[in-house]
Write a structure and sequence with these properties.
The complex is a heterodimer of chains A (372) and B (336). Chain A has 372 residues and is α/β, with parallel strands linked by helices. Chain A contains 13 helices and 18 strands. Chain B is globular, with a radius of gyration of 20 Å. Classes of the chains: A alpha/beta (372), B mainly alpha (336).
Chain lengths: 372, 336
Amino acid sequence: MKKIILFFVLICAIISCVEHGIQEDPHGEIVELNDSISIQYAEGFEVEYGEGFIKIITRSIPGNQFFKDSIYLVTNSNFILLPTLKRVSPSDGRIVCQSSTYLAYLCAIEQLDKVTGICGIDYVVNDATKELLKSNGTSEICPSDQIDLEALFASNAALFFTYPFGSSTEADKYSSKGIQTLLIAEYLEKTQLARLEWIKLFGLLTGQSKKANDYFDAVELAYTTLRDETPPLNKSFIMNLPFQDEWYMPSSKSVGVELIEDAGLTYFYQAEDGTENKLHAKEEVWNDGIEADYWIIIAREEPGFTLSDLCAQSPIYQAFKSVKDKHVIFCNTAEVDYFASGVVEPHVILKDLLFATNQIVGHEPQYFFLLE
Amino acid sequence: MKKNRDIIKISAITCLILIAFWFNLIIGEVQIASNDVFFILGGGTVDNPSWSYIVESRFNRSIVAILAGGALGVSGLVLQVFFRNPLAGPGVLGITSGASFGVAVVVLGGASMTSIGGSLGIILAGVFGALFVLILLLILARFIRNSITLLVTGLMFGYFTSALINILYLWANETDTRAYIIWGLGSFEGLSNQELVILLTVILSGLGLSFLLIKPLNALVTGVEYAASIGVNIRRTRVLIILITGVLAAIVTVYCGPIGFVGIAVPQLIRYLIKSTNHAVILSAVFIGGGFLALFSDLIVRLTSNHLPLNTVTALIGAPIIIAVIINLNRRHAEI
């Protein structure tokens, strides 16, 4: 009997510890967050508001490899969390990013100065961003594609935004050195606006919720207005360039394809499901390229790449309908920051596409332009 | 009698090449009827303009496969006789690695594989790299009598050049790195008509020159001393061997990537099939055999919708043959 009582008491003690993981510290300070966020589109993160803390949860989207992560944004340090729970304060400030896409979000809410380290600083396409990072003393933490632990610890970061795969998921390794991690998978979102909405998460964690909300609302309005005013063109399009014998084509549900479809075009490979890139044989796309009205290419080429340069890559391109009609729309990722800045400027991309397909006039293209 | 059998076998391999060639023309992601393929090859045009390009692409690819496989086979045969080692070949001796390093210097240095300047630079760099390794090997061969030790030295060259290429990656951008890695998987695809003409000219020249080696090769089978005693000019033979094997291996490596196993496996297979000791017969048979193996490997690549890299297929076919040679070597001294 004594053993049973002892066991019961022990269980109660353990449960009470868990339930009261958040305890009050009478000497703590209170940080006022100037706005709360609500999520309309994004599926990959959610926010729970509590007394003195905000719990931010990031998770995989159904259909992808499962992961779940969370962090407590402590707004009132009277509350003390269990050591096993990840916590960060908006005033902590110092951030390390594993992807340059996160920089685009932080840049949009003017928080780049908080970035103390990044993976692949030399691969940041936006020159202004790169210069700013270098002038801020932002350090490279992945000099050889892998995370350099010494460089990461030396960056003195409080929060490390990472991919949900690879060694970056080993949160314990970093938290023991005082760096909290948060898995970010904005790329899994199914729509452009859902991807953009992650700006609210970055706003929340940097204490700039209002700025993030305002930015999102403005872009959302611009984007949806353009989209809703665009009638279907009944013109088909294919995408990208081959690599040797293989031609990776986004599937019809990918964010990039949906954005182009919002410009009134119809994807040639509509029947293919999924969000990931699909491998097509080059011959197959050659055969389809003869019929497709538009050819939208997102690729890294030499500056000043022309239609002649494209045709020099393969003589069959001259037989493509899009090439004959000069309907090749190109985004040179060597010159524009499509994969990062493009995520927070979908309205600009949509405008570029509408301009390239002669649906609007008087626009200065930034990402996509017609190849001459 | 033996001669007749050899002729029948060589004719059979030639027929297999023609069959594989035809399959390569009609099999693909886009179904084109045989009569349309004939019509296009005859210079006619069909309703779908893309088909002409597709058939031309398949035709070029098949020609490249035959030339590349044949060139690697001949290169391997000459090296095996000269080094008196059945495991010698452009891949094992580090010649392919030398050519790869030359290509890496140019490609990872930022030159496009499709630009005219870049293409010429890549060819020169590849040939220079291959010749450099081969000359180095020939110098070392004077001091290293054991043929296995020489092979290990060749393998070390391969590791050394791989290490140098890894250093080059540090300065290369993403696009160049990707281009180099994809090139390294090997492919007979994507050569333009001009590039095909260059490949054809160089390989046929190399093949023509290799026929000058027939008499020396016949003599070298019995040893360098014996060959010299019957009047073979060893110095001239050595220069020809360097030139022919280096250029053949380099041009194939430059245009198709470092293709493994063909150079070693084909001469062994042909020696097993063909009983003649005359290198005029063996050389021709090796060229045809190499062409067939390469074309057959490419057919498998195409049947898997290009999901299998060429080097994977050549390894699956070539590695068992080489293992069989090693087992045979263990049992008795393999005859060259």
